[in-house]
Amino acid sequence: MYDVYKIRKHFPMLDGGVTMQNKPLVYLDNCSTTFKPKSVIDAELDYYKHYNSNSHRGDYDLSYQMDVMLEDARKAVAKFVNCEDNEVIFTDGTTASLNLVAYSYGLKNLKKDDEIIISVAEHASNVLPWFRIADLTGAKVIYVPLNEEGRVTPKNLLKVITNKTKIVSIAHISNVLGYEVNVKELGKIAHSVGAIMVVDGAQSVPHIPVDFKDLDVDFLAFSAHKMCGPTGIGALIGKYDLLLAMDPFISGGNMNITFKKECLADYRLPPFKFEAGTLNLAGILGFKAAIDFIQSIGIENIREHGKELFKYALSKLEGHDDIIIYNKTAEGDILTFNKRGVFAQDLATFMNYKGIAIRAGEHCAKLLDNFLETKATCRMSTYLYSTKEDIDIFIDALINGGDILDAYFND
Amino acid sequence: MLISMTNEMMRQIIMDHYSNPTNKRRPTTDGYETIHMHSDNCIDDLDIYLLVKNGVIIDACFDGIACIISTSSTDIMCDLLKGKKIEEGREIIDSFQKMMKEEKFNEALLEEAIVFINTSKQAARIRCATIGWTAAEEILKDK
Lengths: 411, 143
Description:
The complex is a heterodimer.
Chain A: H1 4-8, E1 19-20, E2 23-24, E3 26-27, H2 38-51, H3 61-81, E4 88-91, H4 94-109, E5 115-118, H5 128-137, E6 140-143, H6 154-160, E7 165-171, H7 183-192, E8 196-200, H8 212-215, E9 219-223, E10 234-238, H9 240-245, E11 256-260, E12 264-267, H10 281-297, H11 299-317, E13 323-325, E14 334-339, H12 344-353, E15 356-357, E16 359-361, H13 369-372, E17 377-381, H14 388-400, H15 406-409
Helix pairs in contact in A: 2-10, 3-10, 4-5, 11-14
Chain B: H1 7-19, E1 33-38, E2 45-53, E3 56-65, H2 68-81, H3 86-100, H4 126-141
Antiparallel strand pairs in B: 1-2, 2-3
Helix pairs in contact in B: 1-2, 2-4, 3-4
């Protein structure tokens, strides 16, 4: 039995003390970031209060203990997404992870007229690094067409993939439309022409079971903060043989064995080769606590909860023709919509006035507006602590709301 | 308040300028100076045009995609600036910016623009209310 009210008790942000516009906070922007349970906050604090030291440095117990905790966290991440421990690189988050692949793999392996395939539904962090690499190598960025629903499908990948394709990089779950993509099948197609498959897992790893080995993709990027973990920490998972052949991205302390005046340097083996400088150790301990928390609830249960809330919201909106829904067939968690005659941003401001946090705009997917035939949409996204009551308040504001300008004139 | 206006009147003015922004158009003659404005936290995406001759703002208009607050506020600004000397225009803009920062401002200069006095209630939209004004300020800066 999924007891959402019991789950909510773990979150200080949900204890009723936080208000917006003098109203109880209804947080429905979980695609942007999620709240942290007390165990995650405590894990970060514990670092500063009890374990403060650097990793890979120490001749003393405190630092040795830090190394043990760091590697424990790495094991926890590896177990969570089913990969080898040495395939887990700690990064600042999804953006840093995708940049690492782009620069360390892309820059080394791409040449003029090679092709990188992405889609117009990708988040900026899975578009702009590839623009940069295309610029630097002369490679081309090609877009896999979306199907009528707005999905990236294996069938459509087959339409654009060629022998020149070297990289296919797609979000496992779109942050705008919430569609789950069959990345396992995309990976097979990519491999059939000798390309690698990169998966942006920012929205999938927190919401659905993700098995790196089973998916047989080459890289998987995700962030802790979208799964109840701290900001500024995430991971890149990469197949070890690929990591081994890649050049460093950021260089500096921690990642080298030795270096000489003649510009010669020996680097450590992956994953350490890609972890230059002092790591975000407090964040890493918080990341592990977040994984522990999610596993205590069960990722399958979290997925089901999201699906149920999505269906509930859809059923409550049935018959309201002034609400345009862009992703009725999505798998869960993300509802993208507009209200006829109301500019998305104005609707989000009105929601703010009602104490409801939703997102309006392009959701960092600025190539998608032609497909949706609108410049901006509103997005409501739930997570493991969201309730039907949250949805009720949201729908009531959306349907019966009142004048958009109430946001400026009513107290 | 110097200009006594009810909330209802203020709402009506904002909606009128949003529904029917008379200054939302592109210039049809040469000589306009323009600045493109893009908001980071809204999707406002506007071009502001001023036609200045012999120290006087002859015309002001704008075009682009914008929310209620930015459309209405920019439209009202254009009305206010038209026919004013550069120095007067600067003073009006300065007063508006001060109002938005909740500082002391010269209410008499703002006329209809006073309706945005409540915008700071929605802090995320202050930038929307000032986007056109900031562009005009920039155009007039070196004159």
